[in-house]
Each structure stands twice: as structure tokens, then as C-alpha cells.
Design goal:
Chain B: It comes from Elaeis guineensis var. tenera (Oil palm). The complex is a heterodimer of chains A (10) and B (215). With 10 residues, chain A is largely without helices or strands. Chain A has no helix or strand. The relative contact order of chain B is 0.15. Classes of the chains: A little secondary structure (10), B mainly alpha (215). Chains A and B meet through loops of A and helix 1 and helix 3 of B.
Chain lengths: 10, 215
């Protein structure tokens, strides 16, 4: 399963 | 990065700077809810757990550090600073944290993008941020009128999330697969919570009268 992409918003 | 998000981040930054300056210069926190400030410190602490693990950009890391430092220093000022703490109105600022923290935590356990500690904490911070302003709005209702700086603080805080909604719309149309329902709904709820405040703030600004909130 794909690692959730890191949240790029503050 | 798009102009809406940059404007949103700058507006958010302005809101904490306005508050810090107010507390630091006039050495008073009258009209400010410590409960809300503590909730914001918790929002940033649970949102930025990945500050050392996921490097997004220098901008992202610096802004995270600024938000963490400013929110915790505001809480420190209001709790520890010998002069500032005297102007804290603890009899009026009685909103119970847990009434907001527990529901957000439960909701985050059920509604999240991935059931991992970091992701649940991140989702919790989103829900908590949406309602963190409530103790402040309750305090404003009780104290009935507010000074300009507090009004500006709440206004900027609402405006930042409204700009983020424009950012989400922009990203939805420009980035394929950019779908984050949880973020969008909680951001919308957060902005709607400010709607009534905006209404009174705008009217007072238009009629150039001191901002009075109805009881």
C-alpha cells in the first residue's frame, strides 16, 4: 500500500 | 504553492504576530482566551509531528517552527509572565478544553486517511483547529465588546482559512488526484464558524462604530 504522501500544507 | 495558499499562510502568520505584538507591547492579554491559545498550541504540536521526518521545503519547515514558537510563547506569556497573566480573565474564560478535544480525537480515530499514529494526530489537529476559536468567540460574547487588536486577530484567523478554501479549489482543478475531503470539510466548518463574527466585524467597520457582539 502506498505510504500516504506527506502533507505539504501547513 | 499557489497565491491563495501563500496569502493564507501570510494572513495566518499576521494573526499570530498581531497577537504576540499586542501581548508583548501593552503587556496585557485582556479579551484573549487562553483556552483558545492552548488549543492552537495543541493543534500545531499534533499537526507538525512530521517536522523532523518529512522535509517538504525550507519555507514549510520555517513556517512550522514559527507557528510552534509563537503559539507556545503566547501560552507562556498568558500563564507565566508576571504582568501579562494579571490581565487574564480566568473567570470569564471557562470553556472546557475536553469538550472539544475528546470529540475531535474520537472523530479522528474513525475518520482519517490512514490509520497510523501520525495520520490520526494530523486529522485530529484539523478537526481541533476548526473548533479551537470557540472559547475565544464565547469570551467575546461575554465581554460584549472587543478591542481592535483582538478583532483584527480573529478576523485574520478567519481570513486565512477562507484563503485556504480558495487554495483547495485551485489545487482541485490544477492537480489530478488532489482530493482531501477531510481537510476540505473541516476547513469549511472552520470558516463558517467565523461567518457570524465576520458579519458583525464588517458592519462595525462599515458603520465605523466600535465592534459590539450581540449577547
Amino acid at each position: 500500500d502506498t505510504e500516504t504522501e506527506p502533507h505539504d500544507e501547513l | 504553492m499557489n497565491i491563495f495558499r501563500l496569502a493564507g499562510d501570510m494572513t495566518h502568520l499576521m494573526s499570530v504576530i498581531v497577537l504576540l505584538l499586542k501581548i508583548h507591547t501593552i503587556k496585557s492579554c485582556a479579551g484573549i482566551s487562553l483556552k483558545t491559545q492552548e488549543l492552537y498550541a495543541l493543534v500545531f504540536a499534533t499537526r507538525y509531528l512530521d517536522i523532523f521526518t518529512d522535509f517538504i521545503s525550507l519555507y514549510n519547515t520555517i513556517m512550522k517552527l514559527i507557528f510552534l514558537a509563537s503559539s507556545f510563547s503566547i501560552v507562556w506569556y498568558m500563564r507565566q509572565h508576571k504582568i501579562v497573566r494579571r490581565s487574564y480573565d480566568k473567570d470569564q474564560d471557562t470553556f472546557r478544553h475536553l469538550f472539544l478535544i475528546l470529540p475531535c480525537l474520537l472523530l479522528a480515530l474513525f475518520i482519517n486517511e490512514k490509520f497510523t499514529f501520525k495520520e490520526v494526530m494530523w486529522t485530529f489537529s484539523l478537526f481541533l483547529e476548526a473548533v479551537a476559536i470557540l472559547p475565544q468567540l464565547v469570551l467575546l460574547q461575554r465581554t460584549r465588546n472587543i478591542d481592535n487588536l483582538t478583532g483584527q486577530y480573529v478576523f485574520l484567523l478567519g481570513a486565512y482559512r477562507a484563503l485556504y478554501i480558495l487554495n483547495w479549489i485551485y489545487r482541485y482543478f490544477t492537480e489530478p488526484h488532489y482530493v482531501h475531503w477531510i481537510t476540505w470539510i473541516s476547513g469549511l466548518v472552520q470558516t463558517l464558524l467565523y461567518a457570524d463574527f465576520f458579519y458583525y466585524y464588517f458592519n462595525s467597520w462599515k458603520n465605523n462604530v466600535k465592534l459590539q457582539l450581540p449577547a
